[in-house]
């Protein structure tokens, strides 16, 4: 197979959802189809992650788990599939957002009884920013579900994306009888087996005289009505709109009972694009460009004290990577060979010999890479657009317990911030004696505290702050400290590059500031 063929058959995507919508279950079913795992229940010990508390052993276990499952590669229908894990639950962090920067498409899993939930909204926003295709899998149809029209309406209204139903559910919960495929005009029927999770799938034509008997009279009438409505009012198929992320194909199914997963996977692979071009120095770099290039989207500090090294994750953007090849690290201005390049295959890590545009590789990093760095073939003068900094949602004031440890405190805080595990801010014109630490997920506070203690030998005092929103300031000059009219409980801070930002306790205060300061723009991420 040529390099071009290898790249063309790659599909790299992330699955986004609110916790409990069924992301893990769906991922597992996809891996089963790809033959990457033999048994259900091997993706991760999710019961542990669910109940993870401040017990460090738990955190360590989780970190171990998320390293191995950061990306899973498998083959299906001659496609080489890379699923990127977007950490959820307690280990929801900025990494979750950054992972989306490495994906070429996203699958949004929605619980049919709950509809669009908070975490999905947040992750969705990042996908929209990147204009990547978004596929919707409405899960748990074997349980009582909301009206499918209402679900689509909610997606369109709340997320601002149009929907294109690929299939349509027939009933839900105990009455769930399957789906009608609006493209092939066939029914895939579902028969629960006394609450057992086995289903029988048969294809029936809607013209089948026995259909009413098969799916029930009421369902039959409802289906005919729904189809008529859909045929008249739903969006037309439009591949360009799908691939530019303005039209989301919607599939109904049930991951747990494995209903509708395989047809979904097949159609998804047909509609989702191969690796997308990326922008470097304002120019599009095609994935088919023969010379190698990649960028760093995630750095995972190794929690094992005996090995202080880190794993850096690279998304390959163009060409082919070969083990032992010489590469150039643009930000470090250094030629090097990447050490122990590896890829994760479900539960295994393997040292790899080659990889292609679209793939993700992990390399051991002695501490030289930063998030957003470019690595490319020597002589290739490019630098990929940086990864945005996403707004933290939890804030704490942090200082050292022992004044003798000031130096270690500053070093630790700076290094951990550079890795992208936390964000740090300070009061305007103040030093580093005391910093405000911002994180996307609260678990990061515990990871930070633990690392300060074990790696830098510093005990810290952490005091939670009541802010929930941070906004980067735009639209007005911030060369000097901006004079703003803000409410008493809003705080002006600076980041370590001395950009000014505002911390808010409520959305109401954000609106208040916008109304009173002409020209002020408030952004919830910073383009680096
Ligand atoms: P997540 O990764 O998005 O957090 O969700 P996960 O797959 O872990 O699924 C959450 C729960 O929902 C699991 O129950 C799972 O079995 C169930 N689930 C997933 N897909 C379906 C589906 O299609 N139908 C039904 N009925 N259930 C589904 P659990 O492990 O028992 O956890 P819990 O419910 O006891 O908390």
Describe the protein's architecture and organization:
The protein is an alpha+beta fold and 528 residues long. The protein has three domains: 3-271, P-loop containing nucleotide triphosphate hydrolases (Rossmann fold, 3-Layer(aba) Sandwich), CATH 3.40.50; 278-376, Beta Barrel (Elongation Factor Tu (Ef-tu), domain 3); 388-527, Alpha-Beta Plaits. It is 27% helix and 30% strand. It has an eight-stranded antiparallel sheet with strand order 18-17-23-14-15-22-19-20. Strands 28-25-27-26-30-31-29-32 form an eight-stranded antiparallel sheet. Strands 2-3-1-4-5-11-6 form a seven-stranded mixed sheet, with helices on both faces. Strand 19 and strand 20 form a beta hairpin. Helix 5 runs parallel beside helix 6 and helix 12 packs across helix 13. Residues 44-61 and 63-69 have low confidence and may be disordered. It binds guanosine-5',3'-tetraphosphate. Residues 17, 19-25, 46, 88, 139-140, 142-143, 254-257 line the site of guanosine-5',3'-tetraphosphate (G4P).
Reading side by side through the largest sheet, how are the strands ordered? 18-17-23-14-15-22-19-20
How many helices in DSSP terms?
14
> What gross morphology would you assign?
globular
Task: Tell me the CATH architecture of the largest domain.
Answer: 3-Layer(aba) Sandwich
Task: Profile the largest sheet.
Answer: 8 strands, antiparallel
The structure class reads alpha+beta
Helix proportion of residues, in percent?
A: 25-40%
Q: What's the average pLDDT? A: 86
Ions, cofactors and other ligands present here are: guanosine-5',3'-tetraphosphate
How many DSSP-defined strands? 33
Low-confidence runs of at least 5 consecutive residues: 44-61, 63-69
